[in-house]
Protein: Probable membrane transporter protein
Organism: Pseudonocardia parietis
Amino acid sequence: MIDLSQPWELVFLLVAGLLAGAINAVAGGGSLLVFPALLAVGFPPLAANVTNSVAQWPGYVGIVLGARRELPGQGRRIVGTAIAAALGSGIGCALLLVLPAAVFDAVVPALVILASLAMAVGPMLKRVIGDPEDGQRDRTGALIVAVFVASIYGGYFGGALGVVLISTLALFAHDELRRLNALKGVLSVVVATVTTAVFAVGAPVDWLAVALLAPTTLIGGYVGALLARRMPEKLLRWAVVLLGLAVGVALYLQ
């Protein structure tokens, strides 16, 4: 366990958690604030990664609470994607614990950047692909597979998970972005629940840091979800794109 005895370290982590929760709710990618913050106060990469993943859980719950008005009518979509998210995140957790760090360094930045670009060209891709057939509002098969793959990434690292998920949902689900943003929160809770259960048993989670970060990510997630509901859809989309690209570049530079 890291000694967080310096006042600046405590304040630094509290502020990082608050901002991360809000950014996760608005666009995704806020966990990339907490991960380098943990590194900055002395955590080794693996401990920072798993501690970050566990600490994000309350923030995702806050997102769902703040965006709960956008969830009615999505029951069938929620069930299917939640099952895929649970299975995928379990596989991602297992990969994190057995694969070398070099795999992480090579794959994660590319995934984040590709997801952000997919979000940027999402409307154009939808025009090329065409609208879903009558009676099938979502491309359900592709949506389930894509969420499963995205959740493997979420279990493996989780940084910018929201960017990956919202890009996936925007491409394969036929609905307003605000409603898909609320679903992103639900799926993030599912992924975080699985990672918390696995990492609590088999990974070096620093529970003192989790205790500091969890309340602020919860508050930030709730406030951020309320802000996201009031943002124009185009603004929300480009906020996701720009933040995702920034996160991807930051990962390459680490």
Observations:
- DSSP finds twelve helices and no strands in the chain.
- The CA atoms of residues 141 and 172 lie 9 Å apart.
